[in-house]
Design brief:
Number of helices: 12
Number of strands: 5
Radius of gyration: 17 Å
Helix content: 40-55%
Largest sheet: 5 strands, parallel
CATH superfamily: SGNH hydrolase
Shape: globular
Distance between the termini: 52 Å
Structural class: alpha/beta
Strand order of the largest sheet: 2-1-3-4-5
CATH topology: Rossmann fold
């Protein structure tokens, strides 16, 4: 059963990634909408365009793994916004980043990059794009505290590229004025895959995975900082 679920998840993720890549790079998005269905990515972006981020809030920004978190319930009493979109990549986050910065949040927790690896972006491109995201957050939302979170493990075949990317992010993000949060060791199994009890498709998290994530970043989320004016 687990193999079937993994196969289904892989197929669905591939379809979403193809649509997002077409949206961002291919110029054929209008044809896709006209002949098939409106992608979830566009629907989320459209919704976020009219839902304002509150000043002084905490924003969780990223792809489907972020989107899947019930952040309001994971952090009761904290003003949070979920700005994760399934299938998103670093270029996609850059395209919609103004929707976050215009609200002047206090903190942003960014986790992005696993889908970039899936579509073949180089490590240099991914790190540069994440660095640009951080730079723009600081420039467009002065006073924001940025936490770049590591890419999580997935299938064992991804071990080397993910660990290499995370090592680069750990070195480079402080240069951009961001904190690096290394979630990876808490999720990885001995063979380099994500631990079985934390995901049912070697990618997306189950409840215990979100609990570990929450417990790891809870002090960072709740820490008192000077809020943007």
């Amino acid at each position: 059963m687990k193999r079937v679920l993994i196969a289904i998840s892989f197929l669905m993720n591939a379809v979403v990634l193809s649509a997002v890549a077409w949206l961002i790079w291919g110029g054929g998005f209008g044809v896709l909408v006209g002949s098939f269905i409106q992608p979830a990515h566009e629907r989320w972006v459209s919704q976020f365009e009219v839902l304002a981020v509150a000043p002084g809030s905490v924003v969780f920004l990223g792809d489907s793994i972020t989107e899947g978190g019930s952040w309001h319930e994971l952090f009761p009493g904290v003003p949070v916004h979920n700005r994760g979109i399934g299938g998103d990549v670093t270029e996609g986050v850059l395209e919609r980043l103004h929707q976050v910065t215009v609200g002047r949040p206090a903190k942003v927790f960014l986790k992005i990059g696993t889908n970039d690896l899936s579509i073949g972006l180089s490590e240099d491109e991914i790190v540069d794009n994440i660095g640009e995201i951080v730079d723009r957050l600081h420039a467009e939302a002065p006073g924001v505290e940025v936490h770049v979170q590591s890419v999580l493990p997935r299938a064992a075949s991804y071990r080397e590229p993910i660990e290499s990317l995370n090592a680069r992010l750990a070195r480079r993000m402080p240069e951009h004025g961001a904190f690096f949060v290394d979630l990876y060791p808490k999720f990885v199994a001995e063979d380099g895959s994500i631990r079985d009890e934390l995901a049912n498709d070697e990618l997306h998290l189950l409840g215990p995975g979100y609990e570990i994530w929450r417990d790891t970043i809870d002090p960072l989320v709740r820490a008192r900082i000077e809020l943007p004016e």
